[in-house]
Amino acid sequence: MTVTVPVRGLTPWTFLRGAAGSARGFWARDERWIAHAGVAFDLQAEGADRFRRIRASIEALPHPSEDVRVRVYGGFAFRDDHAAGGAWSGFPSARFHLPEVEVTGDASGRGRLRLQRLADPTEVEATERELRAASEDLRERLERRPPEVAVPAAVSARADASGRRAWGDAIEAILAAIRGGRVRKAVLARTLDVHLGGRIDPVDLAETLWRRNPGTHLFLFEPSPGRALVGAAPEALATVRAGIFHATAVAGSVGVGESDDERVRMGESLLSSAKDRAEHRMVVDDMVARLGPVATGIRAADEPELLPLARIQHLETAIRARVAPERHVLDLVAALHPTPAVCGVPRDEALALLHDEEPFERGWYAGPVGWCSVDGDGHFVPALRTAVGDGREWRLFAGAGIVEGSTAQGEWDETGIKFQPVLRALEARGVDPITPGTP
Ligand SMILES: C=C(O[C@@H]1C=C(C(=O)O)C=C[C@H]1O)C(=O)O
Fold it and tell me: Which of 70, 157, 217, 336 has the greatest number of CB atoms lying within 10 Å of its CB?
């Protein structure tokens, strides 16, 4: 049972802060956003089959009517065999929510509020009356509440970066595997654990990340209250809308320097770097090849463009294709994940190498997160520039593509830049400055 009402003067933050203590989520690109709270259905799956199982669970959900497209929100761990626990408690191999309340909006301030509940067939009318009353109630509260100005408090911070020496050893092992012909590329990641003296609400972190990182794909998923994943990904893994597929291959990175001139110069040197172009091309070629069995009319530009973000610049190639009506966005996610932007080439060798060289659980880091509907539309991004935590303890992740010509220091610095969006967002919420580890 679904009830939809229009709302004015809506911000996602009033809604999400008002929903503290429930499961919450927020997904945005530029000015368009979706926020949700509560759980009408909790879908979970494990194993190599998890993409297909989630698709089957979505198809088995009760559907209110032809004109309502029920959506679920959530994501997948990086690896098939991931198990929830530790930093990743609440985040199994695959988890999606059909929320109780969903709110969508854009820059206009006009939005839409949708309440959903499973109705007993004998009580449809009563449930609808209840939902209507509840939605009017919520609409009034959302329209009445003045914009909240959260005053940042001074929050102390201590950071633990995984060691520089271990990083150097892992890079050496990957370079040896490249020389030996075992892999051509592997994306090595490291972690940064931030311990705060106070609590930062993941919603505050998401709001700041969204404001400060235009051009990225914002995600927040708090599947059980108190533990959330939040981040700002530079690329789209798979977007399907009315039979059209779209993704961006993003790989090859450089900083932004200290001035506009320096930013331009660094961008140009990235565009002409043979090492970065080769690293980038591996991602495009792999994505195009893997789309072959699941899409038609696949098109990708021959030359990458520059993707300028607030703290980093990347090489980017847009990929488009057509998708048959019986295909679901999750079929495309299953085919593409993990791309060489987050894993390596060949895929299985890179997965095994990273398993040996990374001394932590990737969990959902670099896994596909997003939303989809029963008709097959949806939007997924890899969980990058991200942190998982309970408000006080946050674990940040950042990785870099290692290819022939990579150096331990260069890739250490690059991962240092990739921690910046979350670190600066924490600081903007009143957290003391944090440096991402010894050089
Ligand atoms: C792996 C990450 O980012 C990926 C790796 C990139 C690279 O190696 O140049 C660039 C963009 C992302 O696809 C990360 O942010 O952790």
Answer: 217
